[in-house]
Amino acid sequence: MGLTASLWGQVDTTDAPLDDNSATQIQIENLVDDADAQEFDFDTEFENLEIYQRNPLDINKASREELQALNLLSAIQIQALINYRNRFGQIFSLYELQGVPTFDQSSIAKILPFVSLEATKEMEAFSFKRAFKYKRQQVFMRYQRNIEDQAGFLPQDGEDPDFLGSPDKLYLRYRLTYKDRLSMGLTLEKDAGEEWLTPFSQKNQTKLPDYFSAHFFIKDYNKWVKAIALGDYQVYFGQGLTTWSGFGTRKGAAVLNIKRLSNKIRPYSSVNEALFMRGAAATIGGSKWEATVFGSHRFRDGNISLVQTDSLDDSFEVLEVSSLQLSGLHRTENELEDKNSLQQITTGANMTYKANTWRIGANVVYNHLSDSLVRTPRLYQKYAFNGQSLLNASLDYNLAYKNLQFFGETAVSDNGGLATINGLTAALDEKVSMALIYRNYAKNYQTLTGNAFGESSGTNNEKGLYMGLNANLGRGLSFSGYFDLFVFPWLRSNIDAPSKGHEYFVRLDYQPAYRWNLYFQYRFEQKEGNRSDNATPYDYLINKKRQNARIHFRYRLSREWEIRSRAELSFYEDHEFSKGFMMYQDLVWSARFAPLKVQTRFAVFATEDYDTRIYAYENDVLYAFSVPAYYGRGSRFYINTSYKFNRKLTLWVRYAQTYWADREEISSGQNLILGNTRSELKVQLRLKF
Q1: Does 564 score more than 60 pLDDT?
Q2: Is the pLDDT of residue 106 over 50?
Q3: Closest Cα to residue 662, out of 634, 623, 627, 625?
Q4: Do 600 and 590 contact (CB within 8 A), yes or no?
Q5: SS3 label, residue 433
Q6: Could you tell me the superkingdom of the organism this chain comes from (predicted)?
Q7: pLDDT above 60: residue 5
Q8: Are strands 115-116 and 57-58 parallel, antiparallel or unpaired?
Q9: Does the pLDDT value for residue 670 go beyond 90?
Q10: Arithmetic mean of pLDDT, 661-677
């Protein structure tokens, strides 16, 4: 495989910030480099890796669940490592990882900072005294602001601005950890346009920080108690048909990462105001079985309306909810009216039996809303959930046989709707691996917390077959690709008939040495949808095609300098054909004379419409990320700097600006900017003690 000395030089990274690890950055970019990026829980994933960076996982004794928790290896690679250990015994050198089937140079580079060969001591009994004696604490303070004024912050015709608060976005977080055994923390946030203290709800005018989150989490308390969560946490069952609180992998450059892998419960410390539970959860179990129970009660934002139920009494009205909101924005009077306007109770349980090569689990999740969900009566929502209570139940399984893994889940909602997802991952030989997954989500399957693999975000009204392939061609060359065929049996939003589509993706990577790599990728997608300029009395479907082609180059010139270059084309065809182009140059400098790092980019773009927009991942301050859409005609640059004053104090400063040459105003409505530039400043301070 030809692992270079420079690769192994990356092992000693105990005190290096995670954003210095190029392999980790590439892994995250492969997961979030598209429009679904906003679901990605960057805080949780990076904090998880930071724990393993300080307390590396013993590669010889790590269980399947512990390897899954890294979120850096596919199910195929985890199985290959376990098979290798079973066959050859202890791994004495990290060089041996070259001999594990499906482990290529990039895979090994990703995990090196987080694994070790040191013999792991028997798990110590949990002790609060020891945990608080050897604890690690961090405080993050972040300030963010758009420089240009938006219409929502300006007085209109002598009236007060629509936005009640300042343009500043503020973030404060405290977290205490002990290895991966104890975590507790508090998070506060105010979005731009919000007041720092806002009424809790229309009914409760007590003013509190607009968003606050707190958690307490213990892992492996003793032999039987595997996890305890209090406050805010996330729940992950099966393949996501009944509940999957956080980010779920979908189609992307990591073509084999289709199997959902996670611990059942995890602490939550991020700022997405919808994708978490609030209450208590616990996992108990032995060597062959495991049980998880959870209960959550939280307030949710919803579009609320008063409905008169008795025509003889105009005063008798009830609340109805037309939809649950996910934005978490409370900037205007109307948005504040919807804040915490209803309550959601969610309870559930999982029971899993585990054998050496297989496991089976049973899941149940119950949701109850304080007010009825009554969606706007549109034909495409005929089978969507309406009401107050919803019950989901499922069975999930996993079977490993040699180099094969079979997995899946089948679920039912209390209205009789069915959903099933079943997959296979296989290492065909040491260099070729494949993945296959079939899903069939009935149009009447209903879930409020499900989030399974699929083309659409809702876990219903979809059938599909996905096939992925990865091949190590030797000499640093690898190929990956997938093909996905999907059908929507019922109508969808702005698609007035059952529809279908397909998508394929190919990528060729070349990395002859750790210092540099080059890749080319191409993506094609065709979906049926309503014709946008239809002038006939009835809508009809046409094929809409989207294509993207990208070439990307990265070269580490020295320990101080790294360059990254990218060019990308996009094409979109509806009744007309449009195209777009984007090119950027990155420069990364890590000073030798001081703990200073500078990351900068200059990009130019020209797209004929928003349909040909191009997404690109950007470096950001630690635990934050940006994946902006490049559209129109113009340029963009950013500079992201970090300076480590000492082992306790680190400062990040980021400035970004987009210039449009084809317009004199940006956006519309409350977000309107009079001018052709949009700039953002972000400052973050971390204190460790």
Answers
A1: yes
A2: yes
A3: 634
A4: no
A5: strand
A6: Bacteria
A7: no
A8: parallel
A9: yes
A10: 95
Q: Which structure tokens are listed for 69?
A: 């928790």
Give, as one character, the DSSP assignment of residue 39: G
Query: What are 97-101's contacts with CB under 8 Å, separation 24+?
Result: 97/59, 98/1, 98/3, 101/403, 101/427, 101/429, 101/430, 101/431
Handedness of CA 306, 310, 311, 312 (dihedral sign): negative
Residue 642 is encoded by which pair of tokens?
């970090």
Nearest to 428 by CA among 460, 461, 405: 405
The backbone torsions φ and ψ at residue 487, rounded to the nearest 5 degrees and listed phi first, read -135, 140
Half-sphere exposure in the Cβ direction for 670 (13 Å, CA): 13
> How many CB atoms lie under 10 A from the CB of residue 153?
18
Which tokens sit at 486? 């999907």
* 6's tokens: 């420079």
DSSP element (H, E) containing 50: helix 42-54
Beta bridge partner(s), residue 244: 236
Nearest to 217, CA basis, from 177, 187, 256: 177
Instruction: Scan for tokens 């938006």, then name that residue.
Output: 150
The pLDDT tens digits for 250-306 are 898 889 989 998 899 999 998 988 889 999 999 999 989 999 999 999 999 998 876
Strand partners, 465: 438, 485
Q: Residue 473 and residue 477: Cα distance in Å, rounded?
A: 5
Whose structure tokens read 């959902």?
260
Model pLDDT for residues 609-620, shown as the tens digit of each residue: 999 999 999 999
- Count of other CB atoms within 10 angstroms of residue 229: 27
> Which residues of 428-576 form beta strands (DSSP E)?
432-441, 462-474, 477-488, 499-513, 516-530, 541-556, 561-573
Q: What angle do CA 155, 159, 165 make, to 5 degrees?
A: 55
The amino acid at 505: F
Q: CB under 8 Å to 537, separation ≥6 — which residues?
A: none
Q: Which residues contact 241 (CB under 8 A, 6 or more apart)?
A: 392, 394, 409, 410, 411, 419, 420, 421, 447, 450, 452, 459
Distance between first and last Cα of the chain = 41
Q: Is the pTM of this model over 0.90?
A: yes
Angle of helix 42-54 relative to helix 22-32, nearest 10 degrees?
A: 150
147-195: pLDDT as tens digits: 999 999 999 888 889 999 999 999 999 999 998 899 999 999 999 999 9
- AA letter at 447: T
Residue at token pair 């405080």: 139
d(CA 594, CA 597): 9
pLDDT tier at 1 (50, 70, 90 boundaries)? very low
pLDDT at 312 over 80: no
What pairing do the DSSP bridges indicate for beta strands 317-324 and 358-373? parallel
Task: Give the number of other CB atoms < 10 A from CB of residue 531.
Answer: 14
Average pLDDT, rounded, for the chain: 89
Amino acid at 194: E
Residues 353-412 pLDDT 10s: 999 899 999 999 999 999 999 988 899 999 999 999 999 999 999 999 988 999 999 999
Angle at the Cα of 502 from the Cα atoms of 499 and 505, rounded to 5 degrees: 155
Rg (CA), the chain: 25
Q: Which amino acid is at 171?
A: Y
Q: CA 148 to CA 171: how far, in whole Å?
A: 20
Is the distance from CB of 634 to CB of 659 less than 8 angstroms? yes
For residue 504, the tally of other CB atoms under 10 A from its CB is: 15
Give the span between the Cα atoms of 189 and 98, in whole angstroms: 45
Q: What is the pLDDT of residue 198?
A: 85
